[in-house]
Structure prediction request, 652 residues.
Amino acid sequence: MEELVIETHSLTKRYGPVLAVSELSLQVPQGGVFGLLGPNGSGKTTTMGMLLGLVQPTGGTFRLFGHEGTNPDALRRIGAVVETPAFYPYLSGQANLRYFQGISRGGSPKDVDRLLGLVGLSERAGSKFVTYSQGMKQRLGIAYALLGDPELVLLDEPTNGLDPAGMAEVRDLIRQLAATGHTVLLSSHLLHEVEQVCERVAILARGHLIAQGKVQDLLRRQGVVRLKTTDDEGATSVLSTLAWVDKVRAEGGYLVATAPPERAWELTKALAQQDVYVKEMVPVQVSLEEYFMEVTGGSMTGNRQEASR
Amino acid sequence: MINIANLLRWEWFKLQRRWIPWILLALLLLFSQISVWGSFFSYRSLESTGGEIPLPSEAGSEGPFGARSEGRIPTVAVNDLLAGDFSRLPPDMSPEVIAGLVAQAQQQATQQQAQLQRLYDDFAMPGSIPNALGTAQTFGLILLAILTASVIGTEYGLGTLRSVLVRGTGRWPYLAVKFLTLAVTAAVALLLVLGVTALSSLIATTLAGSPPGDWASPSWADAGVALGKACFSFIPYLALTGFMTVLVRSSAAGMAIGLGYYFAEQIVVQLFSNFFDWFSTVADYLLMQNISAWAGGFSFGAGGGGGPGTLHSFLVLAVYTVAFGIAAFWLFQRRDIAGASGG
Prediction:
């Protein structure tokens, strides 16, 4: 059984009439990169805020490293950047990190210099934070999250403001963290970014958990098979009776069945048994973005109808 | 305890790298020395002239004292009159008027020694300490309100409160350290006022020469009491501004409320006390009135006489401190911490 570093049970946050997070039950296992996906306003940052003790839950419970709720000891095992990294503008990047390292009594002053080097800020370490570009601020935020070598790293949109090269560096860094036994909880709405680095994801929409699991499992489950048959009407009725076929629809002269592509052969068998024959068949592996659109029912703005799963 | 000590160290690390505490400290030292040097210059003036006597209205309409028409009342130095030097009097002044002025000068001269002693006390050690601390306490409250709102409020404005709390500092230790840092800073600032006052006194007494007549040095205990009172008088006001800043989560708004209250209470008390007799009883339980009474009536608009007694003031201020402190900690502990608000 996998050890869980984060476990939430019906975690809920309500701001007056607005339900920010609803009955969220999340399991983040130790090690690897776990993606928290969702459009803006889906509850990702609020969830992170609750885990970090910044936001008081309205209902539900959560456990960090097996212990109920947030406590200073648990927080010292976590590094996190929630929303935009916030630092003191009148201090240099180095002095900011020294301060945060000092108050949490994690690591040593040498770590500060090492981390500044890791995120490519050594040359500007002595410059005041107020003079930093957006990308530099983001890099300093990542260095801040890694202070004290935390077991769990929570990164909220870590590539915001970075150029493509910077984004690639951050992705490499995240992979490196996972490879060295850290657990990374990555919140993002950049689906290709998540797909590249996460082994597991949870998808939120309007505060509700839509799906969670290993990326490959989710995509496999959500795969589609496009086919042409001798009798599309008959094929539709046959496929609709199969429990593992989610949906069947006509699209561009094809029948599109939402079904695991590796079970395509079972489709042909079931159709043939009913005297419907396959003329053409293309198993299609969906991308995370397509899967996301499918389960959330639309765009990344969060204004759409919530998926029914 | 180790956590508090560690946080205190790092809070100071931040504070000393900001401009605002240094600017406020410079202002405090400047204001505190105004009273010391003001006393010194008054002393020098009184010593050299013996004081001034205004000329009767029929005199001085012409000649060297013809300034009356410009709104200035012409005067003559007491020492000149006593020395029989009437050269600066109008030439047409009658001998009877001059005799009257000389008599007035002789009468004033009998009080001159006491006045000189009082002024000397105000700039010579240790009497200069209560004098400087009185001024420092009055302006210090305003400066402390600015510093408190800035130190607590900017954490909300910059969003750094999130970054701090995520490091596992704990909420109440962090707020406690903020208050503690401000209280210690205020106490250190008063000690610096003390040091600068000692230096000023040394210079001023050297310049003034030997003390007047049978001058007797005031008690050092009074200086110690003044320091203790000034320190304690800051605490409830620190609690008020701290609570207000936590309540509104903004340095600008916290500052506005803190400073606004300072003046508003005194205006309200002055206004209402004139119309309603019963209001003076209410005023005895208001914050600024008690700070003023506790510190010896240094605040603007507050009279030195009357008002609450020392024990009464101490108890009322203690209640305010505890009430604002509990409210601030309660709010800070239970409310969600949002991102940067900018204020």
Observations:
- Chain B touches chain A at residues 6-7, 9-10, 13-14, 17-19, 158-160, 162-170, 334-337, 339-340 (CB under 8 Å).
- Chain B is about 70% helix and 0% strand.
